[in-house]
Specification:
Elements lengths: L1 H21 L4 H48 L2 H5 L3 H10 L4 H30 L4 H16 L3 H9 L3 H24 L4 H25 L11 H35 L2 H15 L3 H17 L4 H26 L3 H9 L6 H8 L3 H17 L2 H43 L7 H14 L1 H11 L1
C-alpha cells in the first residue's frame, strides 16, 4: 500500500510539472482555457443526460434512424464550414488590421458552401436511399443547419482575440433553450422528425448569439467586406484541409451508414450510444488546441528548440488526458451503458471498450492538425486522411458482416491510428513532429522511468 501511495504521489507531481510547463505565463490564455472548460463541462453532463433520455425514449430502432440521417448529412458538413477556421484565425492573428476583409470573405465562402451542402445532401439521400421518404425528410431538416454555419468566422475572431467566453455564452444560450425544448418533446411524446428539427434550430440560435456578442464586443458586422482575390487565396489554401476533413467525417460516419445498410437501423442505435459517449469527451483536446493555437503561431518565429518544447508539452498533456479517460472508461463500460441507456443498449458495452482507444490518436490528431496548418502542410494531412478513409472502408466491409458494431469499432480504431499518427512517420516533412507524438503516446513508460529514477 505504501509503494502504491508513493507511485501515485510521484505521478501527481509529474502531472503537476507537465501542467505547469504546459501553461505559458500569459494569464489570458489560462482564462480562455477556463472559459472553454467550464462551458464544455457544463454541456457535457447535461447533453449526456438529455442524449440518453432521447435514446431511451426513441429506442434503438428510431434512435438509429435519427443517427443514420445525421451520419449521412455529416458527409457534406465540411462544405458548410469550408474547413478554413484555423486559416482564418491565423490570418486574424497575423493581420488584425484586415479583420473586416478576412471575416467578410470567409463568411461569403461559407454561406455559398452551406447552400451547396444542403442541396447535395438532399439530392444524394434520394439517390442512395430511394425507398424511404421519411429518411429524406429527416436529412432535409438537418441540412438546414448548414446554411447557418456560415457565421463560424465570428468564432475565429473570438479565438484570435483569446475571448472564447463570448463563444461559450452564445453556445450555452442555444444549448439551454434546446435542452428545454427536448424535455417538452419527450414529455409530450413528440414524433421523430421534431427531434431532427431541434438540431437545426440549435445552430440558428447559436448563430444569432454569436452575432449579438460580436456586436456587444464593439464590433460591427456591417463593416465586413469581400475581396475576391482573398477569396481565391483562401479557397486555394483551405481546400486540402477541406478534403482531409471530408475524409475524416466520411470515415467517422461511414461505419454508421454501412451498419444501417448491412445490418439495420437498430444496430446503428446501439453503436451510436457508445460513439456518442466517447465523442462527448473530445472537447478536451479542442480546448487545449483552441486556446494555445495563437501562441503556437507566435512560437513558430522563436527558436526551434522553444517551438519543439511547446509542442511536446501539448502532445504530452493530450496524451495524459486520453490515457486517463481510457483507464476510467474501460472497466466501467458495462455499468455506464446500462446506467445511461438502459438494458436495450447493453450490447454497446464491448463497442465502447474498443472505441474509447481511438481517443489516443484523435486527441493527438487535433494538435497535429494545428501544427500542419501553421507549417502550411495541409496536403500531407489530406493524404493521411485519404489513407485512413480507404482503410476504414475496407475494414468495415470485412469486419461488419462478421462482428457488426464491434467490427465497425475496430475499423475506426485502426483507421484513426493511420490517419492521425502512422502516416506522418513516413513523410520527411512531418517525421520530426510525429516523433514528438510518439513520445507522447509512450508517456506511461516515460513516467515509469521517471518514477524508477526517483
Amino acid at each position: 500500500m505504501k509503494i502504491k501511495k508513493i507511485l501515485v504521489w510521484n505521478y501527481l507531481l509529474t502531472f503537476r510539472k507537465i501542467v505547469k510547463d504546459f501553461h505559458p505565463e500569459n494569464r489570458q490564455i489560462i482564462g480562455n482555457t477556463g472559459w472553454l472548460f467550464v462551458g464544455k463541462v457544463f454541456r457535457l453532463f447535461i447533453s449526456l443526460c438529455m442524449g440518453t433520455l432521447v435514446a431511451r425514449y426513441l429506442g434503438p430502432d428510431k434512435f438509429g434512424t435519427l443517427q443514420y440521417a445525421l451520419a449521412f448529412s455529416s458527409f457534406f458538413l465540411p462544405l458548410s464550414t469550408s474547413q478554413m477556421g484555423k486559416i482564418v484565425t491565423r490570418d486574424l492573428v497575423q493581420k488584425p488590421v484586415s479583420k473586416d476583409k478576412i471575416l467578410g470573405t470567409a463568411f461569403l465562402v461559407q454561406i455559398i458552401g452551406g447552400i451547396l451542402a444542403a442541396t447535395l445532401s438532399i439530392t444524394f439521400i434520394k439517390i442512395i436511399y430511394p425507398q424511404s421518404s421519411y429518411i429524406h425528410l429527416l436529412v432535409a431538416i438537418v441540412a438546414i443547419k448548414f446554411i447557418f454555419n456560415s457565421f463560424q468566422p465570428i468564432e475565429n475572431w473570438f479565438e484570435s482575440q483569446v475571448k472564447s467566453k463570448f463563444q461559450v455564452l452564445a453556445s450555452n444560450l442555444a444549448f439551454v433553450i434546446i435542452t428545454i425544448i427536448k424535455i417538452f418533446l419527450i414529455v409530450f411524446k413528440a414524433p421523430l422528425f421534431l427531434f431532427a428539427s431541434i438540431i437545426s434550430l440549435e445552430t440558428i440560435i447559436y448563430a444569432t448569439g454569436l452575432i449579438f456578442y460580436y456586436q456587444l464586443d464593439h464590433q460591427n458586422i456591417r463593416n465586413w467586406r469581400t475581396d475576391f482575390q482573398s477569396m481565391k487565396d483562401l479557397i486555394r489554401e483551405a481546400y486540402p484541409q477541406f478534403l482531409s476533413t471530408t475524409a475524416i467525417l466520411i470515415y467517422a460516419s461511414l461505419d454508421q451508414v454501412m451498419l444501417g445498410s448491412m445490418v439495420g437501423h437498430s444496430s446503428i442505435g446501439i453503436y451510436s450510444s457508445a460513439v456518442i459517449l466517447c465523442e462527448s469527451l473530445s472537447f478536451l483536446p479542442l480546448i487545449i488546441s483552441s486556446s494555445l493555437y495563437p501562441s503556437m503561431i507566435k512560437a513558430q518565429s522563436l527558436s526551434k528548440s522553444t517551438y519543439r518544447k511547446k509542442l511536446q508539452k501539448i502532445y504530452d498533456f493530450t496524451s495524459l488526458l486520453a490515457y486517463a479517460i481510457i483507464i476510467l472508461i474501460v472497466p466501467l463500460s458495462g455499468f455506464l451503458i446500462k446506467l445511461l441507456y438502459g438494458d436495450n443498449y447493453q450490447l454497446a458495452s464491448p463497442i465502447l471498450s474498443i472505441y474509447i482507444f481511438t481517443s489516443l490518436f484523435t486527441f493527438q490528431g487535433e494538435v497535429m492538425s494545428n501544427w500542419i496548418v501553421t507549417e502550411g502542410l495541409q496536403h500531407l494531412n489530406l493524404y493521411a486522411k485519404l489513407i485512413g478513409l480507404a482503410a476504414n472502408i475496407m475494414l468495415n466491409l470485412l469486419l461488419i458482416p462478421m462482428h457488426q458494431g464491434i467490427g465497425a469499432a475496430i475499423a475506426t480504431l485502426v483507421s484513426a491510428s493511420l490517419a492521425n499518427y502512422f502516416c506522418f512517420l513516413f513523410w520527411k516533412k512531418t517525421r520530426e513532429n510525429a516523433i514528438l507524438t510518439t513520445k507522447a503516446l509512450f508517456l506511461p513508460l516515460r513516467l515509469l522511468t521517471l518514477l524508477k529514477r526517483n
